Amino acid sequence: MVLRGFSSRSFVVRWPWTAKCPCSQDSNRTFEIRAPPWMARRRDGEKGPSRNSDKGGKPLIQINQLVKKYSSRQGTIIAIDNVSLNILQGAIYGIIGLSGAGKSTLVRCLNLLEKPTSGQIVVAGQDLTKLSNQELRQARQNIGMIFQHFYLLQSRTVAENIAFPLEIAGVPKKEISIRVKELLHLVGLDDKSSAYPAQLSGGQKQRVGIARALATKPQVLLCDEATSALDPQTTLSILNLLRDINQKLGLTIVMITHEMKVVKEICTDVAVIHEARIVENGPVESVFIKPQSDIARQFISTVFPNELPADLLKELSTHRDSEIVRIQFLGSRASDPIITDLLRSCDVRANILYGSIDHLRSTLFGTLTLELLGNPAQLKEAHRYLASRELKVEVIQHAL
Amino acid sequence: MPFDSSLLFQVTFWTDLLRLIIPATGETLYMVAASTIFAYLLGLPLGIILVVTSPGHIMPNPWVERTLGTLVNILRSAPFIILLVALIPFTKSVVGTSIGTTAAIVPLVISAAPFVARVVESSLKEVPYGVIEAALSMGASPKQIIQKVLLPEAKASLILGVAITTISVIGYTAMAGTVGGGGLGDLAIQYGYNRFRTDIMIVTVVILVVIVQIIQSLGTALARKLTH
């Protein structure tokens, strides 16, 4: 299910990958469903610019033609090459790329830790590149940030670390202690308030980082490889925490990562950055089902491996009357008895080579690699059948 | 004869201890304490400026950084004994005299302040820049970053720096005798070396060793207490 845009009451959900399917008559069917209450709810005591400006699916963050160049004696390095992105309020937006692709620079431009060479960064209606230093500091209180290496203050306790951004914002002491307690509870560290960062595990440190980033009630949370220094178990618990926060507070999250697993787990949207450019972006489901670029395909294969062993392919290719197809299905399709239906309606035989089913956020996402055995006419019929079931079919190896 | 000389030795030793060594220890402690305090009053801000104006830090300013850096290097490269003499007119204009313990403090401060600046600089540079960026991302101003991040985070390292500085200053005070500053170093030269009083030489050295030990132990213990 993909969040395309929403008013305060409802949003449209569709399966984008059906749009290009030539045989389905109702490929553009849409469902109206009610927005969960957290989307419409406003938080009390909110700081910063009013949210009215970004109602009705208007992006909370707009990146317009962003360019970042570094000049050195060796020449100019273009870290970000004309990137434009819109990030909707309430989204968990993943930006994935290999190391050196420019993703870290991109997220650091979002709160102007890196000054863009040209272009606009509009957050909550404010163009950050046009603000004075004082205004920028104010605007940054609306944009929390967490880091791969946490960067907690070693000389302060957990509670004092969380209080730190509030001290900076000039919040009175009494309010700080109340807010710190709330935040400790939110991240599940009620009993660690007087511990020092050195006494915590990596996951606990990141929880402190998250609490600290949320202290000033920002609308945006930037995550710079926030789970890359954590083990898989802890990564999941931190991702679950981020998803909870996204749902409870309606917080917009921008995540930089090199792990597709992270994107698969919680992101609603994803942009793939490669050699300083965005090579593709869109709702996670559509990028996973229909990746446009090689780099995106590579990333997807890290979480849904679908390469068949070469010797197996070689062996199978000796069959004259078979072809190998990969079928991908999403959502309720994942629970349909596809193969049985296929075999019953077409006169082909199927040999299951590989299959997986997993969650893409809360949606089921499956792939199935089959060897279909039959004469060309039968195979054609099988294709027609699969297409009519709105399944994405990819032929890996054609019949000879 | 041997009996007599021994008795004489004992008497002179104890009277000299009272007459010479105790006041000299007091002078040394006074010079060291006052010089270190004033050196920090000058050197700490200087060290902070050197760090924050360095390239890629919170207030990069190559011109300020280079000018201050060069000044610090020049002062540090001048041998203390030269500085001591060269600064006589300046000392006179500051404390009204160019002779005595207080007069020795002026060149000690001028010599120690650039040293302090470098010690402070290296302590502050130990604070990971990521921590500073985290503070920047929360909207902290440069002043808040210095007060709430740089100095507190570098506290343990700064304390160790104070110990190092104090101990170096003790070494410099030995030369204060040149301008009549007194102190243990001067005593060791005047009596221990020039008058062949090995006993006084040994006592001054022992006292200096004890002072250095105490300062270093205090610094280490305090730094450990501040490290979490």
TrEMBL record, chain B:
Keywords: Cell membrane, Membrane, Transmembrane, Transmembrane helix, Transport. It is a multi-pass membrane protein. It holds the Pfam family BPD_transp_1. The keyword Cell membrane applies. Its main location: membrane. PROSITE patterns: ABC_TM1. Residues 25-219 form the ABC transmembrane type-1 domain. InterPro entries: AA_ABC_Transporter_Permease, MetI-like, MetI-like_sf. The chain crosses the membrane at residues 29-52, 73-91, 97-117, 158-180, 200-223. It is found in: Cell membrane. It comes from the Bacteria. Belongs to the binding-protein-dependent transport system permease family. This is ABC transporter permease. It comes from Desulfosporosinus nitroreducens. The lineage of its organism: Bacteria, Bacillati, Bacillota, Clostridia, Eubacteriales.
